[in-house]
Design brief:
Blueprint: E1 2-5, E2 9-15, E3 18-23, E4 26-29, E5 37-43, E6 47-57, E7 63-74, H1 79-83, H2 86-102, H3 107-110, H4 114-130, E8 134-145, H5 148-169
Antiparallel strand pairs: 1-4, 2-3, 2-5, 6-7, 7-8
Helix pairs in contact: 2-4
Amino acid sequence: MKIKIREGMRGLLFRAGTLVRVLGPGEHRIHPILRRETVETVDVRERAVELDLAPLLTRDGVPVGVTGFVAYRIADPTAVLKVGSVAERLEQEARAAVAGAVAQLEALALAPALRGLAVDVHDRLAFDAQRIGIEVVGVGLTGVRFPRRLRQMMKSKEVFERMIGASAGG
């Protein structure tokens, strides 16, 4: 029987339930009855996991939410055999990495530091993911959600500073 592995995919060839080899793109012949061969396809194209992590505690104990993404690709197709759902595993690893990075900063320093945090999270994730056959292509942290009361306080402070600036200039 002929099978075709598309570009961006890899095939895991199993014989009697045991992984024999990884098949690249193109046509391949397998023997499902005679040799009890099966093929499981793995998508190795770049993909992204959306992050919506909350609550995470800052150094000063403020619970915040952080949004973002992790772009990745499966470098070793057998990784799916080791970890099951690659996306779920990456989300768990990202949560731990982001939580660790957020815990180092005070709440008010968090939003301006997102770009630097993303680099830190990328480095932490890339190291761990590489060991299981996943390449982290990029990490983006796109937003911070503060508790309502803190948002109100921040807004009041902005208004107060504008009032002070306006009265000092006039």
